[in-house]
Amino acid sequence: MMEKFRQVAMICVGRAVLFGWLAIGLVMLSFSFNPAIAFRAGAVMALAMATILLVKAFEAGRKSPRHTEMWLYLDDKSRPVNPESKQVFRNTVREVYGRFAQGAFLLACVMFVLSIVFVGLGYDKNLPILHRVERERPVQTLKSDPAQLPVLARLQSRTLSRFP
């Protein structure tokens, strides 16, 4: 009976986590111009997924089995009816959420390490935050060169003045 609970819980939670990883992968793909940023974004989102899965694992102990998706996939004879089987069901669901959260956390750590490796290889240099701010150059003034005075006079006569 418990193995049936675990199998259904793995399918239901695994499918939800797979859709989450699809979203994370698409966001990482959008940052493919810079692998360091892509892996950093993936790691942050994987940590968010692990956090959500941990919250769901803590919630599983208080939730009635009837209000879960897994209840729909169990046949009538496999559904928990007595308090002991409901507790076994809750513990199994909590364990499955915990395992997926552990996997998401592990992958987040791996992606953070890969991000650090790519930063070390120099893939993070095109970030504007990391560039050194150049000092402002002094304003260049036109030097009065007698040979350029007629050219400057012609240029000034062609430009409209904003002030009368």
Structure description:
With 164 residues, this protein is mainly α. The protein has helices at 2-30, 35-60, 69-73, 83-120, 149-158. α1 packs parallel to α4 and α2 packs antiparallel against α4.
Please tag this protein with its features:
164 residues, 5 helices, 66% helix, 0% strand
Topology of helices and strands:
Elements: H1 2-30, H2 35-60, H3 69-73, H4 83-120, H5 149-158
Question: What is the compact description of this entry?
Answer:
This protein has 164 residues and is an all-alpha fold.
Report the principal-axis shape.
elongated
User: What is the share of helical residues?
Assistant: 55-70%
Structural class: mainly alpha
In this structure, how is the largest beta sheet organized? Answer: none
Strand content: under 5%
Order of helices and strands: HHHHH
In whole angstroms, the N-to-C terminal distance is: 92 Å
The average pLDDT value, as a whole number, equals 81
Low-pLDDT runs of 5+ residues are none
Tally of helical segments: 5
Secondary structure: number of strands: 0
